[in-house]
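Table S4 entry, NADP-dependent oxidoreductase.
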Amino acid sequence: MAADLPSTSREILLADTPGGLPGPEHLTIARRPVPRPGPGQVIVRNRYFLVFPGLRTLVGDEADGMPLPRIHPGDALYGPAVGEVVAAGPGGPLRPGDTVTHLLGWREYAVVAAADCTPLGGLLPDPVAHLSSGSAAYGALTRLIRVRPGDTVFVTGAAGAVGTLAGQIARLLGAGRVIGSTRSPAKAERLRTELGYDAVVVPGTRPLDGQLAAAAPDGIDVLVDNVGGEQLTAAVRAARRGARLALVGALSGQLSVHRRGGSSPAEIDTFRLVGRGVSLHGYSGQDHPGVGEEWTKRFGDWLRSGEITFPHARIPGMDRAPGALQELFEGRHFGTVVVELPPR
């Protein structure tokens, strides 16, 4: 049954393929018709959608092989969103008033197959927490590189969406010492004072090997790497015997103005990997079904108990969405970045 829907919806479109990092000049806000839902479809009025670095790859020309389709000029951007079902076609399980997550963010109203929506339920105390990137960190720390009591854990890109949760998760799983990296001294202070990081290295200020040696004199046991590049290189050199390294992201290449979003080379000392029995794995959520559901339950329990916090920035309104993507690339925010739309 269809509700009283607007005739059009504003969407963020890719205007042209950027030669480097996409900025507001590569995006445009357009109005498109809102159709009535067909069988098995729903219309969702979005309340929040995620601003995430993977869009850099999806709008570039190196997206082949990605699990999500490339975004071409004229296409709307997309990504994780939370919204309210306002109309439902026949034959589906959802009804107006249901709150769901789906992958058609970057627009006010989305036409989505009901099968592609996930009802929120009451596991998380705040709907926007469903847009956290903690599942990747949790999956890496529980499936690939299981944290052991007393481990020294190093999280690169610790002030980002994954990193701000990864350090807290590692501590809750038994880590003895948690070290992070960020290029911002101000964010380094927040990581220590707000999120309980024991030490934070700041690449670009002093040699990274020396900073890591001071932060972890005995080396690191576990790595959650969101960056790659020189930080991965330094982490391998700091790895102890039997260290477990998980590659969750590759921001150094993905967000480089000199690359095209789909590659991130790094120099790794394979002699050290062999000689010290170090394991290195890439994490993909597709390979670990069930992690998302497990994470959501534990995340909700930890949030309610106050054992974990969810650092995030809410950017108000569609008009600020194109700029929010640039702000993410420039590292202006701490934690997860979401665009918040008004209820109506």
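The chain is about 25% helix and 25% strand.
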